[in-house]
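Researcher: Here's a chain I'd like modeled. Treat it as a single chain, no partners, no ligands.
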Amino acid sequence: VQLQASGGGLVQPGGSLRLSCVVSGLTLDGYAVGWFRQAPGKKREWVSCITPFDNSADYAGSVTGRFTISKDNAKNIVSLQMNSLKPEDTATYYCAASVELQYLCAGQDMWDYWGQGTQVTVSS
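Model: Modeled as a single isolated chain. Structure tokens:
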């Protein structure tokens, strides 16, 4: 199983980025998928996820209304659209997948597979 995250970069405050995570080796329609981030010197933080039960999405309070997660089961791709970016969004962003988290994924720890991370820097 491989998760390949991409789309990070340098953006000015207020700008947008779209992260993508291409998944191979499993079929996404049976998995929860999520995004996490880790800033230097800080703990890894959950950002957003989608459960396979009803494809409902959840978001951390710090990104609600600005970030949108989506999943394309046919292409096995998970995306994170990030708008109105702030300097505090600067971090390495990771995608993850879980077969256990069928009904609830927000803030949960049971993630089976992780991508390698993509750097997002928000700065003027």
